Amino acid sequence: MFEEAGAEELFDTFTALVRQEDADPDRLAAVLDAIDEALAAIGLHGLTRPNRSWSPLPGVRQRDTEVFCYVCPLKRCDRVESAAARCSLAEQPLERVRLA
Asked: Concatenated DSSP letters for 4-50?
């Protein structure tokens, strides 16, 4: 259908954009609009939705922020906290550990 509509190059462009780490959502939308127009010209309507939006799938792309937890500074227990805290026994702050 893309070949018949003359939209093969547009599809290749869209595929290349989607594979980019930081694809421009406006550029993606413009290419999808052009694909829709080409397909509509041969009688295929509604390939994509007009109210579409683009965002990376969770867990698929690189995180923008680092994730940490805080663990026992003595490595004597299995205490894990999501925010900074202190160990009463060691009288020290919990050790910050990078998770991602």
From this structure: HHT-HHHHHHHHHHHHSTT--HHHHHHHHHHHHHHHHTTT---SS-T
